[in-house]
UniProtKB/TrEMBL annotation:
Pfam families: FemAB (PF02388). GO terms for biological process: cell wall organization; peptidoglycan biosynthetic process; regulation of cell shape. PANTHER family: LIPID II:GLYCINE GLYCYLTRANSFERASE. It comes from the Bacteria. The lineage of its organism: Bacteria, Bacillati, Actinomycetota, Actinomycetes, Micrococcales. This is Acetyltransferase (GNAT) domain-containing protein. Coiled coil: none annotated. It comes from Falsarthrobacter nasiphocae. InterPro entries: Acyl_CoA_acyltransferase, FEMABX, PG_Glycine_Bridge_Synth. Signal peptide: none annotated. Transmembrane segments: none annotated. The keyword Cell wall biogenesis/degradation applies. Keywords: Acyltransferase, Cell shape, Cell wall biogenesis/degradation, Peptidoglycan synthesis, Transferase.
Length: 386
């Protein structure tokens, strides 16, 4: 079909991968746009893969999108995770044409009935009706480490603090191992408990353990798991068995690596284990031919809580890339507005309740003070009478 002079062509997973393989390695293709990612977390009952769609103008590929379909109790949507990806210069007009072509394709498909599209955009003002997604989505800025260096040059490119901490980890007996067997089981028993500790410490929400295991088991050729082990204490016997203290899960796709997930416990902080882990994964991703590594999210308007990890990641590179933001494109505007209002009310409810309790306590305190403390005028009157 044609929309805004673009043709939308559904393709198979193998055709999708062949097309990407033929593209220049300099083009950033997020792993979430790969055929492999379509099989990750497939047990999620709300999510199914909808289609690989290629957008062409006069026969030339200009963009592509791996599209997921989400069906929840109150709505259906199409989600393009970390996409669309543009193979030519991304302009406001082209971004608008791609979104409109996707919307028209969805409207013409009798097998689906999405209320909205959820896509990552650079030029949302170019697409009429687009609104910032109520969900935060993926990170909006990331630190990127450029590879292609010798091991010595790579380490030298780090900050002096990072180099010092890497050396400190070695002196503390930190050992980094790549897990190549029983990765799902190792993750559940050794890694996820560390992530639960990290989430409790840093106050962020966890995905179910099954999601991380799915990345390892359903995309094994693209994912790697590294675990840092260290002595349980500084005075532990040298021969004592080391314990897991930190881990990192990486992916690599189309010449680019990604530090996708990771976590550390208190002992990892004492031993600088995360610095040893980062050094190791950057060396390994260099060895396997990647040109750069994305270290994922840092602080932004929607992710202010990432300031701590930003400081850590900037020890390894000062390059920061700005990424497209997440937006919704309503296909059923009236229903979408009603849904959005309901979701906003629900998401703001706990915060509003906390504010109400705080205000009530404040008013109660002021009332008690008013009862027990005489007014200035009354005090002056009492003094005048005595």
């Amino acid at each position: 079909m044609n929309s805004s002079r673009l043709t939308v062509e559904p393709v198979s997973a193998s055709e999708h991968e062949s097309t990407i393989a033929a593209l220049p390695v300099e083009l950033h293709v997020p792993f979430e746009q790969s055929a492999a990612w379509a099989g990750v977390d497939i047990a999620n009952g709300a999510r199914s893969h909808y289609a690989f769609l290629h957008f062409k103008r006069e026969g030339e590929l200009v963009a592509f999108a791996s599209v997921d379909r989400y069906v929840r109790r109150t709505r259906e949507s199409l989600v393009v995770m970390a996409g669309p990806v543009f193979t030519v210069e991304r302009t406001p007009a082209l971004e608008k044409a791609v979104v409109e072509a996707l919307a028209e394709h969805a409207r013409q498909d009798p097998t689906i009935n999405p209320m909205y599209l959820r896509v990552f955009l650079d030029y949302p003002d170019a697409v009429p009706g687009t609104v910032r997604s109520i969900e935060r989505g993926l990170y909006e800025r990331e630190v990127v480490v450029e590879l292609g260096k010798s091991p010595e040059a790579l380490k030298k490119s780090f900050s002096s603090t990072a180099r010092t901490r890497i050396n400190r980890a070695a002196r503390a007996g930190v050992e980094v191992r790549e897990i190549t067997e029983n990765r799902g089981e190792v993750f559940r028993t050794e890694c996820f408990p560390i992530m639960e500790e990290t989430a409790s410490r840093d106050a962020f929400s966890l995905l179910p353990a099954a999601h991380y295991v799915s990345v390892l088991e359903d995309a094994p050729e693209y994912s790697r798991l590294y675990v840092a082990y260290a002595p349980a204490s500084d005075d532990a016997p040298e021969a004592a068995e080391k314990i897991p203290v930190a881990w990192m899960l990486t992916t690599e796709y189309h010449g680019r690596g990604c530090y996708l997930y990771g976590a550390s416990n208190h002992r990892a902080q004492e031993t600088s284990a995360m610095f040893a882990l980062m050094h190791t994964i950057l060396l390994r991703l260099t060895e396997t031919g990647n040109r750069e590594v994305g270290l994922t999210g840092i602080t932004s308007e929607r992710f202010p809580e990432l300031k701590g990890v930003e400081n850590f990641k900037l020890r390894f590179s000062k390059r920061i890339d700005e990424l497209p933001r997440l937006f919704d494109v309503p296909l059923q505007p009236l229903k979408y507005r009603a849904l959005r209002a309901a979701l906003l009310t629900r998401s703001q409810g706990p915060a509003l309740a906390r504010d109400a309790v705080s205000r009530a306590k404040d008013l109660a305190g002021k009332a008690r003070a008013a009862v027990t403390r005489p007014k200035a005028g009354a005090a002056q009157e009492s003094i005048a009478k005595n």
